[in-house]
Specification:
Elements: E1 5-10, E2 13-18, E3 23-29, E4 35-38, H1 47-55, E5 63-67, H2 73-76, H3 79-86, E6 89-93, H4 97-100, H5 108-116, H6 124-131, E7 142-144, E8 149-150, E9 154-158, E10 167-171, E11 176-180, E12 184-186, E13 189-191, H7 201-212, E14 218-221, H8 231-243
Parallel strand pairs: 4-5, 5-6, 6-7, 11-14
Antiparallel strand pairs: 1-2, 2-3, 3-4, 8-9, 9-10, 10-11, 12-13
Helix pairs in contact: 5-6, 7-8
């Protein structure tokens, strides 16, 4: 099984990208020298994140916090294993708790079908949706809300729409926005996420505008690629697109 690609976004911020849906999680080396994970890869073994940590010369014991944007399996699969290996604190919104602790998990045929879908590959989108939970549950050390600041400088921004409890994290020390699936980035341009995977389009539109107000120099989405250059004009262009009634694409 190929490893994810790990690459530097900006000082202390690394993207962990899987080819399946170009799903991105992130590792942030903080000034205190601890490591914060934003989302946790696509492998329930934690393999994605453990490999990435080795790539940047770190170990699981260096991870002090795990910040989860939303419950979908392609963003949270490795959270349980990473939390157990590191002893890190886990943060996510209370509205995601039933999913992330597997209280919503399907049974019977749906669960059986989910179990045969690989964690990477063309059908991975359906794995978590069939079971209605990630493969391994993870409890929060603390449920977060809008305006909270956690893990030494990550501001919580409630961004419902993709899921009811979706949150983004703005790392003010580095002016880096971790947008999860509230925004897409394609070919250096901010974009809407795909319409079929957006539960509430009106809420998602409001969440996008909220994120675009933040003075981010870098935007790190949950898929495709980070926006590492010209963020200010691109945020304004996207704002105008939304305000002028920009259409939701079938694919993000």
């Amino acid at each position: 099984m190929p490893h994810p690609r790990t690459f530097r976004v900006t000082e202390g911020v690394y993207c962990v990208m899987r080819r399946s849906y170009f799903t991105c999680s992130y590792l942030v080396v903080t000034p205190g020298d601890g490591v914060v994970a934003v989302d946790a890869g696509m492998k329930s073994s934690g393999r994605d994140m453990f490999h990435a940590l080795r790539d940047i010369g770190r170990t699981p014991e260096d991870v002090s916090a795990i910040l989860l944007t939303h419950w979908h399996n392609d963003h949270t699969a490795g959270a349980c294993e990473l939390a157990e290996a590191s002893g890190a604190s886990v943060f996510y919104h209370q509205s995601e708790a039933d999913y992330l602790t597997r209280r919503t998990a399907s049974h019977g045929l749906k669960r059986a079908l989910s179990n045969v879908v690989p964690e990477t590959g063309p059908f991975v989108l359906f794995k978590g949706l069939l079971e209605n939970a990630p493969a391994r549950g993870v409890a929060a050390t603390r449920h977060v809300a809008d305006g909270d600041v956690v893990a030494g400088g990550f501001e919580v921004v409630e961004t419902p729409g993709h899921t009811a409890g979706h949150v983004s994290f703005f790392y003010r020390p580095g002016r880096v926005l971790f947008a999860g699936d509230a925004l897409a980035v394609i070919a250096g341009k901010l974009r809407f996420m795909a319409r079929p995977v957006t539960e509430d389009l009106d809420a998602a539109r409001r969440s996008m505008l909220k994120l675009l107000d933040l003075p981010a120099d870098h935007v790190c989405p949950g898929h495709r690629e980070p926006l590492a250059h010209h963020a200010a004009p691109e945020r304004e262009r996207m704002r105008q697109d939304i305000l002028s009634g920009g259409k939701w694409p079938l694919f993000g």
